[in-house]
Amino acid sequence: PSTRMRVTAVAPRALGLRARRWAILHEDSPAGREAADTFSALLDAFQSRTEIVHRQAIANAALQPDTLAAMHATRPDALLLALRGDDAQRYLQLAGSATLPVVALYADDLSTPPFWIAAGHPPEPPAILADFTQAYQARHQQAPTLAALQGYIALHSLAAALQQAGSTDAEALRDALAGLT
C-alpha cells in the first residue's frame, strides 16, 4: 500500500483517540514527509482543535534518546510514528514502557504493544493459517513472507469462488466472490 493509503487506513482510529496535541516522528525521505503532511491534513480537516506540537524527520539509524526527550518535553497526547524497520524497532527499545498512544504506519514485523494503532502485518500469521505456515516452513526452511501469504489467500479465494460459481463465467465469479467469507 502507498503511504497515503496507510495514513488513510489508520486515520479513523487515530482520530478516535481525540488527542489534541500530536507529535510526529517520520523518516527523512519523501515518503516520510508525505506521511506527516497527509496525517497533518487529516487532523486539520476532521479535528479542528488539534495541533502538531513536535514534528521531526529522522535520518536512517539516527533515532537517539535525546530525540525522544525533546519530543516528550512538548507534552504530546499521541504520536504518529512513520519509521520503518530498524528505526521503528529502535523507537520501541527507547520508548520502553511509555504509554503514549502511538499510531505506527509501518508496523510490519514488529511486536507492537497492544495499545498501539498499527498499520502492517503481524510478524506471525494468524492461527487460522497454521497449516499453511507449517507447510511453508517445511518446504522453505523459513517463515512465510507476506507475498506468500497473500498469494495463498488469493489462490484459495479464487478456488472457492470457482467451486461456488460452478463455472468460469465472469458474472458468476463476481457473485461468488462477493459472497465469500
Characterise the protein shown here.
This protein has 181 residues and is of the alpha/beta class. 50% of the residues lie in helices and 14% in strands. A five-stranded parallel β-sheet has the order 2-1-3-4-5, with helices on one face. Helix 4 links the parallel strand 3 and strand 4. Helix 1 runs parallel beside helix 2 and helix 6 packs across helix 7.
Features:
50% helix; 5 strands; alpha/beta; 181 residues; 5-stranded parallel β-sheet
Q: How do the SSEs run, as a string of H and E?
A: HEHEHEHEEHHH
The level of helicity is: 40-55%
pLDDT < 50 stretches: none
Largest sheet properties = 5 strands, parallel
> Number of helix segments?
7
Give the strand content: 5-15%
Number of strands: 5
Radius of gyration, whole Å: 20 Å
The end-to-end span amounts to: 23 Å
The neighbouring-strand order within the major sheet is 2-1-3-4-5
Q: Summed up, what is this model?
A:
The chain has 181 residues and is of the alpha/beta class. The protein contains seven helices and five strands.
Draw up the topology in text.
Blueprint: H1 3-16, E1 21-27, H2 30-46, E2 51-58, H3 65-73, E3 78-82, H4 85-95, E4 102-104, E5 117-118, H5 130-140, H6 146-165, H7 170-178
